[in-house]
UniProtKB/TrEMBL annotation:
Domain Fumarylacetoacetase-like C-terminal: 73-278
GO MF annotation terms: isomerase activity; metal ion binding
Protein name as annotated: 5-oxopent-3-ene-1,2,5-tricarboxylate decarboxylase
Gene Ontology biological process terms in this record: carboxylic acid metabolic process
Protein family according to the UniProt entry: Belongs to the FAH family.
Length: 290
């Protein structure tokens, strides 16, 4: 099932997307609410959503919103593709690098990705993201895929000079409105097991920046869930980003390729969709809101 959370006019709803357009699930079943939280909590409600019929609206008329409005945790892997590790000058690890993002650092697909006033080194990172369905602790690799509600697209926008100010990556990964999510969420039955074998790409216009495949991840979905649930209880609605392939801007030769205001960066994952974000300078943010 392909799901989309967004607004039409002033009304936010959850939509099921198919070839005919987007069917308003919230209107048909009010208990579904205005983000994916209720569907994540209730497999029965999700099953009902698959049977909803009604007039479809054009997807282009929907302004995307975050799939989960208030995720409890946003957990992220770093260094999960070997060629990306090499381009960054790191040693290949035997345990994944991990960091967390704040709620203020993420936003919906289509919203501006903000280049902060203190830096011009805004980088892109195409990533697969999963949404936790069933929570748990000490989840085995064998059971891990049963804990996935769905998959979406993530752009882990990174301010590189701030990322490298300390051994911890927190500052560079948590500037406000630098992590774009969505717009679509695919339930696991709609994709290959563990979302493997999917082309993943980033681009600006015709310029292809990254191009790889989710099969190239060192730690796949099941591994990641098992590893993360060793140290924290995963909860329904948590978001987990699975790292980026090679081709990031800071490693480009002969000089880095930073995102610039006025550009639109697109992250596409085969079978899921495109997460597009216009780049806006922080100084122009207030003007854009007028």
């Amino acid at each position: 099932m392909k799901l989309l959370v967004g607004t039409v006019g002033q009304t936010r709803a959850v939509f099921r997307v198919d070839a005919a357009g987007a069917v308003n699930l919230t209107q048909a079943i009010p208990a579904i609410g205005t983000d994916l939280a209720a569907l994540i909590a209730s497999p029965e409600l999700l099953a009902q959503a698959g049977d909803v019929t009604g007039d479809a609206v054009a997807v282009a008329d929907i302004t995307p919103a975050l799939p989960v409005e208030a995720p409890g945790k946003i957990l992220c892997l770093g260094l999960n593709y070997i060629e990306h590790i090499k381009e960054g000058g790191y040693d290949i690890p035997d345990y994944p690098a991990m960091f967390m993002r704040t709620r203020q650092s993420i936003m919906a697909a289509g919203a501006p990705l903000i280049r902060p006033s203190c830096s011009e080194k805004l980088d892109y990172e195409a990533e697969l993201m999963l949404i936790v369905g069933k929570g748990g602790r000490h989840i085995s690799k064998e059971d891990a895929l049963d804990h996935v509600f769905g998959y979406t697209v993530f752009n882990d926008g990174s301010v590189r000079d701030y990322q490298r100010k300390t051994h911890q990556w927190t500052p560079g990964k948590n500037f406000d409105q630098t992590g774009a999510i969505g717009p679509y969420v695919m339930t696991p039955d709609s994709l290959p097991e563990g979302a493997t074998g999917l082309k993943i790409e980033s681009r600006v216009g015709d310029e292809i920046l990254q191009s790889s495949n989710t099969s190239n991840m060192i730690w796949g979905v099941a591994d990641t869930i098992a590893i993360m649930s060793e140290f924290t209880t995963l909860e329904p609605g948590d978001l987990i980003a699975l790292g980026t392939p090679p081709g990031v801007g800071h490693a480009k030769k002969p000089e880095p390729r930073w995102l610039r205001p006025g550009e639109v960066v697109e992250i596409e994952i085969e079978g899921i969709g495109i997460c597009a974000s216009p780049i806006l300078d922080e100084a122009d943010l207030a003007k854009a809101a007028e």
